[in-house]
Write a structure and sequence with these properties.
This protein is an alpha/beta fold. It is 46% helix and 14% strand. The chain has helices spanning 3-10, 19-27, 47-61, 92-105, 123-126, 131-136, 143-150, 155-158, 162-169, 176-196, 209-221, 258-266, 273-280, 285-296, 302-317, 320-335, 358-364, 371-379, 397-400; strands at 15-17, 33-38, 65-70, 117-121, 201-205, 228-232, 344-348, 355-357, 383-385, 388-389, 394-396, 402-406, 410-416.
């Protein structure tokens, strides 16, 4: 194995358990089986997901096979990693719809050949549900599998998990389903090993460490070689604080239009510039290190570096021309304080009194996640109608028509709906 191959795998990685084992398997001269699971708990992939996906691509580029595991069974529960409360249990319909978007969008990042890529659903072995059965909503539940799994660990071992121990100490509930989650994820590795002869490496975020190590234990318990665990840092969203998440509205979707994607990247805190370059791009490591030093020494304007970051990422998911156009638009709107040339149109109607409720409108067209958030933005002066700060959420239809701005980068053109 060349040093460059190991350097590629190490890039942006938080931990490898163990690097010695990884070197030995890479030197064995056979394609390794690399697994990563994605629970489709929300539709569409965002840049936070691509941290793992890009590392999978690195393994593919070195000749290894990726198992893209869609956790349609575990997704019904929701991974408790990093959660301070029990997640909402999803329906089969929600999970299936979300999984469909994952399969389509992952083609932007991974090689699709049969020798390098395979999609699996863990409902196949958790519920014994074939794709045909999943499509009809039917599934077979084999409780004996859970009896077998439950016998391989203890309650004390499971509640050692930091997420669970903190919640229990705070008097917050931990559902029985959540206790099973690490075992179910670990069992995925066992089934991959049964079908492929091995499960060499499993990737996950640093918040997944407990689950990934459970996979090592279960592989040994079932007579297989333990998997190598490779963890990657969690990517903070545009707020610079919380893990990127659609539910927190701090995400940057890989399907976002170029101008929107560019603007969101420009809004990240300066402290995340280097991390985004490292985890989300293929920009040379030496250049990143040099730029990090320049940023630290204030030898370069962070905004100029972010312009480069946004251009690189938009080019990856769209085109270089689209990135250049998005850059010009950003500079025109945010530097010259001009309106965007291309705004999404929203048709609006008044109520019986001839009024338009901007709070309800903002929620309806997904400009905010809730009425409470809309009210807060209005109080903070972050909502403008035709360039004027909105003071009252109720306005006449005549006054509502025109440009609605929410925050520094989101614009909609409000037009009257046909009567």
């Amino acid at each position: 194995m060349s040093d460059s191959a190991l350097d590629l795998i190490r890039r942006g990685v938080a931990d490898i358990i163990s690097e010695k084992d990884l070197k030995e398997r890479m030197d064995a001269g056979r394609p390794m089986v690399i697994k990563a699971g994605f629970d489709p708990t929300a539709p569409d992939l965002h840049l936070g997901h691509t941290v793992l996906l890009r590392k999978l691509r690195h393994f593919q580029d070195l000749g290894h096979k990726v198992i893209f595991l869609i956790g349609d069974a575990t997704g019904l529960i929701g991974d408790p990693s990093g959660q301070s409360k029990t997640r909402k249990v999803l329906t089969w319909e929600e999970v299936r719809e979300n999984a469909a978007t994952y399969q389509q969008q992952v083609k932007k990042l991974l090689l699709m050949g049969p020798k390098s890529f395979e999609v699996r659903y863990n409902s196949e072995w958790v519920f014994g549900a074939s794709p045909q059965m999943r499509s009809t909503g039917l599934e077979v539940f084999d409780f004996s599998k859970f009896v077998e799994l439950a016998s391989l660990t203890t309650v004390a071992r499971i509640i050692e998990r930091d997420d669970f121990s903190k919640r229990l100490a705070a008097g917050k509930p931990v559902s029985f389903l959540e206790l099973f989650y690490p075992l179910m994820q670990g069992y995925d590795s066992v089934k991959i090993a049964e079908q492929h002869g091995t499960c060499d490496v499993e990737l996950g975020g640093t918040d997944q460490t407990f689950n990934l190590l459970m996979g090592r234990e279960l592989l040994k318990a079932y007579g297989h070689q333990p998997q190598i665990v490779l963890t990657l840092p969690l990517l903070e969203g545009t707020d610079g604080v919380a893990k990127m998440s659609k539910s927190l509205n701090n995400h940057i979707g890989i399907q976002d239009p170029p101008n929107e994607m560019f603007g969101k990247i420009m809004s990240i805190p300066d402290s995340l510039i280097v991390k985004y370059f490292t985890l989300l791009t293929d920009v040379d490591v030496a250049w990143i290190e040099s730029t990090a030093a320049d940023l630290s020494n204030k030898a370069v304007n962070p905004r100029d570096v972010k312009l480069e970051l946004a251009s690189v990422i938009v080019s990856m998911y769209h085109t270089s021309d689209a990135a250049e156009g998005a850059k010009e638009e950003f500079l025109r709107v945010f530097s010259n304080k001009e309106l965007p040339t291309d705004m999404a149109e929203v048709e609006i109607k008044s109520d019986a009194d001839g009024q338009v409720n901007l709070i309800e409108l903002m929620v309806c067209v997904n400009l905010t996640n809730s009425k409470g958030e809309a009210r807060r933005l209005i109080r903070q002066g972050a909502v403008k109608l035709n360039g004027e700060k909105v003071e009252q959420p109720q306005v006449s239809l005549e006054k509502a028509l025109g440009t609605l701005q929410v925050g520094p980068r989101t614009f909609r053109k409000l037009i009257e709906a046909p009567k």
